[in-house]
Amino acid sequence: MSRLVSFLLLLAAPQELDRLIDALQAKYSRLGSLAADFTQLYAAPGERARRESGRLLLKKPGKMRWDYTAPEPKLYVSDGKVLYEYVPAERLATRTRVKETGDLRAPFMFLLGRGNLRRDFRRIEAAAEPPARAGNRVLRLVPKREPEFRELLIEVDPTSLGIARLSFVDRQGARSDFLLANVRENVAASDAQFTFRPPAGVAVTEQ
Predict the structure, then answer these.
(1) CA torsion sign, 150 to 157 to 117 to 13?
(2) 105-120 confidence digits (pLDDT tens)
(3) Whole-model pTM?
């Protein structure tokens, strides 16, 4: 079955779309933690495209850790209240309250049931964009309030409900794609993994 045919079938079956939304919400509300390898692709009008990769760890309630390994080490870590960004090469870390951050990584917490798809998005529909993996579905979600992104694309396996990709498009047309692989659910994760202690000589500034 071609990608176009799969897309048209999803458009023609709103009940299938409703079931997929409800199943996604139910599954990720039950998860306690999630780990994955990720590749982040960034493209914006007039800017050079970027590609980065690393490991992701999420834990309820609101904790996340992004260990970037390529092309350079970086760390984004949050205990659910404060987000730290640390770049070892710059010997500098920034601290931001999660409620005030515009960081695109923050919405990932919906994967652990922190948000509600029907409550937080005014429109959820089948996306015209084909999936990266045959058989997957791509959903387009438009937030009720436009925070740091204009729309969100979620690529999901309709059988396992595994998330293969999340793509954010901001108001200026810049796009960030997060491709997930080797996803593990309900992994063991200690709270200490979401605490940032600056190394000696590293200054921490308020964002």
Answers:
(1) positive
(2) 766 767 776 778 888 8
(3) 0.86
